[in-house]
Design brief:
Belongs to the binding-protein-dependent transport system permease family. This is ABC transporter permease protein YurM. It holds the Pfam family BPD_transp_1. Helix content is 73%, strand content 0%. By secondary structure, the chain is an all-alpha fold. Helix 4 (56-87) packs parallel to helix 7 and helix 10 packs antiparallel against helix 13. It has one domain: MetI-like (MetI-like fold). The two termini are 40 Å apart.
Length: 266
């Protein structure tokens, strides 16, 4: 019974994705008349139109640059902050944790106006940094708390052994803590990438020009300009999902590892 219900639940996730990809190979008329039927004669015209008419390739590059840079910055600064908070004892540490937890209660919509004013004053609106920096700041709290909680579980014996071998703090972070913390780094990166990649609200406000428009903003434009072309809509959605699936496939093995697996085996 458990496997039956788990399989049924999995189908509720897998089938909609299959439905979208299947309809992307149909013209709009066939999608309307028989949206649940198989595409027996697949047609690539929708994919051709997606790249020719909508310049979806440029939006792909914009999304990957901004989301990839966000993930990189969050992992670097979040990892260093998590290392300090998890392995050092200093006055004000509890206050810092309290502030971090409190910031999770602040909705992102409440920060849009001040962030937008800062971007205008620094001339970063409609640039890559205009979305990278707000996304980095917005995801740092989550990443720091998750990674700090993991690093606190790393045995102190590893730290003491590294000190005996002449390892300084920076080398200890890069050679000891980063390799051991790969599962939590992978988990944080996939969540940060998804939040950055799918953030339509910020994209419409901070980077609304065509030259820096991410793919989620392009998808929103398609829904208004090509609302009756359901085949093209299905194609755009399919192309939007592809990078997320690729990223997950590459790091899924790290996400599935236990939090302390291999911690004292090195």
């Amino acid at each position: 019974m458990i496997y039956f219900f788990l399989s049924a639940w999995a189908m509720t996730t897998i089938y909609p994705l299959f439905w979208i990809v299947n309809n992307s190979f149909k013209v709009s008329r066939d999608v309307m008349n028989n949206s649940f039927g198989l595409a027996l004669n697949p047609d690539l015209i929708n994919y051709q139109n997606a790249f020719d008419r909508m310049n979806i390739g440029k939006s792909y590059i914009n999304s990957l640059i901004m989301s990839g840079a966000t993930v990189l910055l969050v992992l670097i600064f979040g990892g260093l902050a998590a290392y300090v908070l998890s392995r050092f004892s200093f006055s004000g540490k509890r206050i810092i944790f309290s502030i971090l937890y409190a910031t999770l209660l602040i909705p992102a919509f409440a920060t849009v106006v001040p962030v937008y004013e800062l971007l205008i004053k620094t001339s970063l609106v409609n640039t890559y940094w205009g979305l990278i920096l707000p996304h980095t700041a917005g995801n740092l709290t989550f990443a720091i708390l998750v990674m700090a909680g993991y690093m606190q579980t790393i045995p102190k014996e590893l730290e003491e052994a590294a000190f005996m071998d002449g390892c300084n703090r920076l080398n200890m972070f890069s050679r000891i803590f980063v390799p051991i913390s790969q599962p939590v780094f992978a988990s944080a990166s996939i969540f940060v990438f998804l939040w950055s990649y799918n953030d339509l609200f910020s994209a419409l406000i901070f980077v609304n020009k065509e030259n820096v428009r991410p793919i989620v903003a392009l998808l929103n434009e398609i829904s208004s300009q090509y609302g009756t072309d359901f085949g093209l809509m299905a194609t755009a959605v399919s192309l939007t999902v592809i990078p997320v699936l690729i990223v997950y496939l590459f790091i899924s093995k790290y996400i599935q590892k236990g939090l302390t697996e291999g911690a004292i085996k090195g």
